[in-house]
Design a protein that fits this description.
It is built from no helices and six strands. Helix content is 0%, strand content 41%.
């Protein structure tokens, strides 16, 4: 007999991994990437803005990093050895590093949450 346990995190946005609605108004925010993680049904990312404020966003699917689609659950952290990269993350560009990389996120509002499907590095 096999037993399975699943942890489901509800973001309050609706179905897991919302998709960008057509003709939605896009907003932009720039800051240092503090966290990025995807679970089975939802994901979040956090950036630190220039004024020190932190903004958390729900991750939509499909999402793009520098214009490419990746299925990466946890983006590499500064100082993390390459062998520690998580499944699906080996193709993430090496210049995307949590707590180090400055990014611009594209997002929209859904049910009181910022929802993002695009992250781009700022050079």
């Amino acid at each position: 007999m096999i037993h399975a346990l699943a942890l489901v995190v509800s973001t309050g946005v609706g179905p897991p991994y919302p998709s960008k609605p057509p003709n939605v108004h896009a907003y932009y925010a720039a800051g240092r990437l503090l966290s990025y993680s995807l679970g089975n049904h939802s994901g979040t990312l956090t950036i630190a803005l220039a004024d020190g404020a932190r903004e958390s966003l729900v991750v939509a699917q499909p999402n793009k990093i520098n214009g490419h689609h990746y299925l990466c659950q946890i983006v590499p952290w500064a100082g993390e050895p390459p062998r520690m990269r998580h499944w699906g993350c080996s193709e993430i560009p090496p210049n995307i590093v949590v707590r180090q990389t400055t990014v611009r996120v594209t997002y929209w509002w859904s049910k009181g949450n910022r929802v993002s499907d695009e992250i781009d590095t700022i050079r």
